[in-house]
């Protein structure tokens, strides 16, 4: 499956565009199917309706586990590194992982879980998280992993949206010198979740937790009651594999749905190619399994290719900013896949933390999540890769299932801070505001994709209309990514940022509407508007303009109360960095907030506000500018 030269890439790409069905069928042949497909692809982007490998039967865990047992049963599948560097790391071979997945799958069955049931997973970054994910897939249950930083309210919304039947969690998690009481958060969430029948609790931090009779069960007790044989459920290629909620720019969680067959082929193919994974190498992706990057490049992509994947529980700066580099040295990591926000944060400590650490095992570096700035790119290249490791700057989305525009390591000639070229099978187009395709090179536009690939989302859970509206209605017959993009003189793609209203805070996607909803829940707040502004470490910071007329208390205390509300409703990751009290917001005549004006104010760029002709009351803007200067 691996492409070895630029000429081969060009040839493969051409074939993949001219004969997409033949191309993807050829890739799919490299996976294990219980029954092959009757039809490779049927699709339209109007409904939308997309089906890959129709009629095929498979189980993704047979591809990720069983098929490696004979040759690679004793090869490490997962290496786990604890938050605490003193704690021994854990290695699970393919044989052991297979056993544990089957065992836990039997626990789920014993507790009444059936094919198609939705399961919420809210866990620390421990091997049992990957085991829980795979155990769901083993029996055809649909997993919905929620990042361990979300609040009870956010969890409840997500659980209710997909009517989850069971929750898998832990007593708590460690992140740096902090402990998060996961079970307590789940207990709060479940007050409002009538569909949840059982909660399975892993012991990890050993903090006291309440265990409700008839509902809550210990992981450790349950696995003793079952055996390790669990046949893999036969799934249709188009059966649901998982739901993953994205930040959601309209405030309501948006459950992106991926299906078994296409997702597997796409995650596996992109993993093998972009990173040039070689047998016996150690692959380290620093994302959390709660995000799509963790789903595709900690769990499914690497395991489907028989790779060794490293799971790290902690954060790059604990106990010292050398931690990530020490892990690379300790486990002889060959491929390191991380995010610009992590690179920028480590960069701020200078070169000292890298001194004396042997990172010669590194062969390939990767970046994901937001546009990487050139300074960070060069630092990564020079200080981490010693100018010896290609950097794959991978552009993709929760909705795309896997990498879309990305260099292929050792194949694609690189340009700093550039996602370069589309992977085989991906047909990007740039369009102007009216949806007209912009041809040629040296141009800017809205990035769309004009032909389906196996990893494309199939729907948003329980609300197909929303999927259509969000991705397929902006421009007819195109998948709209929401990102702006430049195609340079050489035909290389460089993502310029989002054209929608999402803020990227330290690699976490936060919808402006979601934060506004949270702020508006605070008693006394009349209305608010939230925008992002450039932040040296976080990438983007959150700037909130808040209308709060009845100021009884000190404004500073009120600000703290608002921060507390946001923490309760969404989580600490969504706390505004700046709050400005205002008496009104700039609105259009049709009542829409003009965010681009607020963005300029937040950036301190008030000399040219652009076209303000649709503004209802220009006086409001003057007032906001005045008080912003005093903040
Ligand atoms: P929501 O869809 O709810 O708004 P989100 O888009 O923030 O959430 P993700 O799917 O995790 O959630 O993020 C995908 C987005 O991240 C892309 O659309 C793009 O804006 C950005 N992104 C990811 N990788 C890169 C990259 N290599 N270069 C530039 N931007 C990137
Ligand atoms: Mg998005």
Automatic annotation (TrEMBL):
Keywords associated with the record: Acetylation, ATP-binding, Ligase, Nucleotide-binding
Domain AMP-binding enzyme C-terminal: 514-592
Keyword check for NAD: no
GO BP, sorted A to Z: acetyl-CoA biosynthetic process from acetate
Enzyme class: ligase
Enzyme Commission (EC) number: 6.2.1.1
Gene3D superfamilies found in the cross-reference section: 3.30.300.30, N-terminal domain of ligase-like (3.40.50.12780)
GO molecular function annotations of the record: acetate-CoA ligase activity; AMP binding; ATP binding
Transmembrane segments: none
Domain of life assignment: Bacteria
Domain Acetyl-coenzyme A synthetase N-terminal positions: 9-64
Acetylation listed as a keyword: yes
Domain AMP-dependent synthetase/ligase: 66-452
Family: Belongs to the ATP-dependent AMP-binding enzyme family.
PANTHER family: ACETYL-COENZYME A SYNTHETASE, ACETYL-COENZYME A SYNTHETASE 1
Protein name, as recorded: Acetate--CoA ligase
Organism: Pedobacter lusitanus
